[in-house]
Amino acid sequence: MAPSATETTTLPSRPDDSKASLKVFGGGVGAYKEMATVSFEKDAELKGKDGFEAAKYPHYLPTWNPDLKYPPLVPFEHYDHGKDADPSFPNLLKDGVKTSELTPTIGTEVHGVQLSSLSPAGKDELALFVAQRRMVVFRDQDFADLPIKDALAFGSYFGRHHIHQTSGSPEGYPEVHLVHRGAGDKSHETFFQTRTSSVAWHSDITFEAQPPGTTFLYALDVPETGGDTLFADSVAAYNRLSPAFQERLHGLKAVHSGVEQIEASRLKGSIVKREPVMHEHPIVRTHPVTGEKALYVNPQFTRYIVGYKQEESDYLLKFLYDHIALGADFQARARWAPKTVVIWDNRVAVHTALVDWNNGQRRHIARITPQAERPFETPFKA
């Protein structure tokens, strides 16, 4: 079962750790983890069934190998290539490329760029462009049709690949995280018997010492409508706060936990590829390229504020969660379609999938998750 409010989980220490033991305050398993699948109906996916076609990319179907085990992650030096980018984007947004801003602060849709053909300079500009726009939707991409090793080679330019602790992955490619709901799947019916919403805001794997930066999702099979992904601008969320409140948040750190995710997988009888970790990160982090400050908390993985009593921590975190979740004026929706790639910067945006379609159509999406620097903050400036 999930850790109780008084349980202490002891973790392997790192060289820079002042503590090897961190408390877990009431961290249950949220909606994001409850909806994670750990199996699928083989015939429906490989052959098609009940009017549904077979999966378009069967080599991307998830596998859950219980024999895959990985040691704890070790620190690495990350270099953000956005630092080398030409801010006029001559190699990314060439003549003939069409862009459309989804909202003033977050989200841009791009037509006329083939990501797989970008030069190193174009990739540098991509990193900067995504950091500035938080989330970018690229249409008409060949990414899903590339050999998986080539897609991974592209992603490795932006950081070390993360291997997810519990998710399914294509056979032989554990670096690819799969989001998969098979054709005819009805698990949403059980979920909504006890839930009113599938919204689960989060930034990916924030419990790691070095969470991801530039991150990639690409469509394999998607519903005709529905299953969109919402994004919220964490920089705009920070900027919307009063200077006095911003200043109070500076210097605070919160613990992010992967324990509950592991326990959820074990409860389902599924895999654990690496033992769970927890890490402290600043509540306000600074982007290494743009210098912008962003709120860095999320209800899926953030557990408590260091130095606060539980009730105090819960009170402040709930305000921050609600502030982000209710901020429709700094959110954008990425609508999925075949050959779509969505790229976002996990350091300055949170997101949530939506389970809003009930016609049984398949939703099959792959994620490549390069890790970035350890989160840091810079001094408050009014």
Write the layout of secondary structure elements.
Layout: E1 8-10, E2 21-23, H1 31-34, H2 42-46, E3 98-101, E4 108-111, H3 120-133, E5 135-138, H4 148-156, E6 176-181, H5 187-191, E7 214-221, E8 229-233, H6 234-239, H7 243-249, E9 253-257, H8 259-267, E10 278-282, E11 284-286, E12 293-295, E13 302-305, H9 310-325, E14 331-334, E15 341-345, E16 349-353, E17 363-368
Parallel strand pairs: 4-5
Antiparallel strand pairs: 1-2, 3-4, 5-15, 6-17, 7-15, 7-17, 8-14, 8-16, 9-10, 9-13, 11-12
Can you list the strand order of the major beta sheet?
Answer: 3-4-5-15-7-17-6
Q: Could you estimate the helical fraction of the residues in percent?
A: 10-25%
Radius of gyration: 20 Å
The mean pLDDT is: 91
Strand content: 15-25%
- Class by alpha and beta content: alpha+beta
Distance between the termini: 45 Å
What is the element string, with H for helices and E for strands? EEHHEEHEHEHEEHHEHEEEEHEEEE
How many strands, which pairing sense, and closed or not: the largest β-sheet? 7 strands, mixed
What is the assembly state of the chains in this entry? single chain
Number of helices: 9
From the spread of the alpha carbons, the general shape counts as globular
Task: Work out the number of β strands.
Answer: 17
Low-confidence stretches: 1-28
